[in-house]
Amino acid sequence: MSKILNIIEKGQNLEKSKPRGGENMEYKTIIGLEIHVELNTKTKIFCSCSTKFDKEPNIQCCPVCLGLPGALPVLNKKVVEFGIKTGLALNCVIADESKLDRKNYFYPDLPKGYQISQYDKPICTDGYLEIDSGKCIKKIGIKRIHIEEDAGKTIYSQNGDILLDYNRAGMPLIEIVTKPDLNSSQETYNFLNKFKSILEYIEVSDCKMEEGSLRCDVNINVVNSDKNLKSNIVEIKNLNSFKAVVKAIEFEEKRHIRLLSEGKNTIRETRRWDEKKNETVSMRKKEEVYDYRYFREPDIVMFNIEKSWIESIKKTLPELPHDKKERFIREYKLPEYDAQVIVSSKKLADFFENTVKEVKNSKLVSNWIMTEFLRLLKEFEIDLDNIKFSHEDFVELLKFIENGVVNNNLGKKVLSQMFKTGKSSKEIIKEKNLEQITDRKTIEKIVVNVIRTNQKSVQDYRNGKERALAYIIGQVMKETKGKANPQLVNKIIKELI
């Protein structure tokens, strides 16, 4: 989440990538997801190498994550804890015992020639996440959550060389597999937004899609029950943005329906999304489970998960987005839409609640965050972590607005300058002489002068034309460069005419 598009992608006003349409009248789209999430642990899943991002290639690896002969993996307990925590947040059943398995396949950046993952005894099963489908609240099943290691990274250079960076090899992942309960790009979009928000709240991952912390595979096909038609399931691999997920689903829906209507069918295969061509492209034939030749990882023993440990992890779960939304509506009297947007990002929700502690007018705080604050984050293409001013500076500005030091219009100008310069509202108001004019005598002099030079508008107002009053007020505000208190200006004009 480096930009406001990602803040509200947690949220979610991503208008340009908002899904279009839904189910075809004749065909039902069936979608299941496999979501890979990189965990926020300090070290890798089976060794003590650092998990820091964007380091020089191949400096954060050791004999274990390079798969050298004789190197033995040791399971990181924190990875299991984060897996359980995610399972609890997604209403899963936590296993009493679990084990790790070898998933065998060849790829240049998979140093051992196999991945240590989980096959038949994942740590979490049978969960669900409720979403708004547009028609009703719909329960999307979570089939399983398992832990595994990541592969390295393949880099294709401009001169055609293939380079390998093993810093990512052995990074801890959880894979969340949904049941095929999603039926449109809109539902998928809503699910991913809520899912991502929950992960951020429980702090198991930073979910930075641009850094590969969250990647999504989509399994999709279409069914026409009336005509007894069903396309083969196609997997779309490694989608790294919600926008790409939406576009890929919509493209595949049309492709599957077109092929079936022509008397053909899709090939059971793995495809990828080509952003430049705006279409999915075939990668390889889809592997079957038996192709991976799973067998139990001999170097790591089966492990038990004590109920007491599960209960202690459950106690660490924070207030989740849905509960926070309901509380914000109840406690701060926010409209449902405002509450939904604000709680969609944990950072934004914390920012709002910390502000309300200082500025008791929750509606004022909500209005400014929902309008100017989010607009400026988007305009400056930054996220909440990268604003130049402090939270205290924002509180100070709202207090100035609440106490009439500056009016709303000037407040907008001040906030924009705060984003540009990082200066406090107090500094900007003083530098630009923006303090609101509240002295009655000063405003009265200006009003008298405006009335004298706009007699036609005065007469129009006396004849019942309300627009004329707005014009006179506008002239006074123009004379004062927007600094006069609008309520006082309105009152004085009415008294004098």
TrEMBL record:
Keywords from the named record: ATP-binding, Ligase, Nucleotide-binding, Protein biosynthesis, Transferase
Classification via SMART domains: GatB_Yqey (SM00845)
Enzyme class: ligase
Pfam family, one: GatB_N
PROSITE patterns linked: GATB (PS01234)
GO molecular function: asparaginyl-tRNA synthase (glutamine-hydrolyzing) activity; ATP binding; glutaminyl-tRNA synthase (glutamine-hydrolyzing) activity; transferase activity
Record's function text: Allows the formation of correctly charged Asn-tRNA(Asn) or Gln-tRNA(Gln) through the transamidation of misacylated Asp-tRNA(Asn) or Glu-tRNA(Gln) in organisms which lack either or both of asparaginyl-tRNA or glutaminyl-tRNA synthetases. The reaction takes place in the presence of glutamine and ATP through an activated phospho-Asp-tRNA(Asn) or phospho-Glu-tRNA(Gln).
Protein name in UniProt: Aspartyl/glutamyl-tRNA(Asn/Gln) amidotransferase subunit B
Organism: Caminicella sporogenes DSM 14501
